Amino acid sequence: MKYLIANWKCHKKSSDVQNWVTETKQAGITGKNKALELVICPPFIHLSLLRNLLPEIQLGVQTLSPFSDGAYTGAVSALMVSEFAQYAILGHTERRQYFGETDQIVANQALQALDNSMTPIVALEKKNWSSQLSQFDPGQLKKILVMYEPSEAISTSGGEAADLHDVQQTAQLIRGGYPIKGFLYGGSVTAENVGTYMHAAGVDGVVVGAASLDAHSFIHLYHQFGI
Ligand code: PGA
């Protein structure tokens, strides 16, 4: 099975979400595809709306509290979101850069996700993949999806998608050292290049940011899979 993860980041009002769903449903994207796990990761506030509008599509969050429920003002726990979401993107470059998330915080978030039967999608770059992954034991790694996303490959940083050879080499290195559940690539994935990454050796799927926001561009990308 391949993964297509849409990371909406901090975008969309609820009316935008409704329009996006209407258009993608009309295009026949229902989530009922055994060969492809489609996961939409909206801001927390839209989880309940999306759960109702798209009961068959998997949902994910873009961060989590590293703590369980308790006196943590402003936090959203894995227990709370597990009612709606099955996945959690953790340690995204933007979370590390703007919100001070460290390898230790990300490890604690991932443990919270695992304790609540969610699948962590741990975001990594070349400079931190080994320090981050060495925080987990093999039993935990088997349940973790790795998302390799060099920060310079993120579309909004003005970058370009990573070189396929680099992605495959990193997949091979990580898989050689850590028994992970799967390896995803993220960074400037578009309708034009999605097939290349999706079908690359050692790659189980992609994470799409900007190209998932507009329904038309997302529908176009979805139909490139050939799955
Ligand atoms: P991008 O973002 O597809 O816009 O590069 C991907 C991400 O940062 O998750």
List the helices and strands and how they pair.
Layout (H helix, E strand, L loop, with lengths): L1 E6 L6 H13 L9 E6 L5 H7 L4 E4 L16 H4 L5 E4 L2 H7 L3 H13 L3 E6 L4 H5 L4 H4 L3 E4 L15 H14 L4 E5 L7 H5 L6 E4 L6 H8 L5
Helix pairs in contact: 1-10
Bound molecules: 2-phosphoglycolic acid.
2-phosphoglycolic acid (PGA) binds next to strand 8.
Describe this structure in words.
With 227 residues, this protein is an alpha/beta fold. The protein is 35% helix and 17% strand. The chain has helices at residues 14-26, 47-53, 78-81, 93-99, 103-115, 129-133, 138-141, 164-177, 194-198, 215-222; strands at 2-7, 36-41, 58-61, 87-90, 119-124, 145-148, 182-186, 205-208. It has an eight-stranded parallel β-barrel with strand order 1-2-3-4-5-6-7-8. The model has no long low-confidence stretch (mean pLDDT 95). 2-phosphoglycolic acid binds next to strand 8. 2-phosphoglycolic acid (PGA) binds at residues 7, 149, 154-156, 186-189, 207-211.
What would you say about this model in short?
The chain is of the alpha/beta class and 227 residues long.
Tell me the strand percentage band. Answer: 15-25%
Show unreliable segments: none
Which kinds of small molecule does this entry bind, naming each only once? 2-phosphoglycolic acid
Major sheet, described briefly?
8 strands, parallel, barrel
Radius of gyration: 16 Å
First-to-last CA distance: 10 Å
What spatial order of strands do you see in the largest sheet?
1-2-3-4-5-6-7-8
Order of helices and strands: EHEHEHEHHEHHEHEHEH
Shape: globular
Helix amount, in percent?
A: 25-40%
Mean pLDDT: 95
> What structural class do helix, strand and pairing data support?
alpha/beta
Tally of individual helices = 10
Task: List the quaternary state of the chains.
Answer: single chain
Number of strands: 8
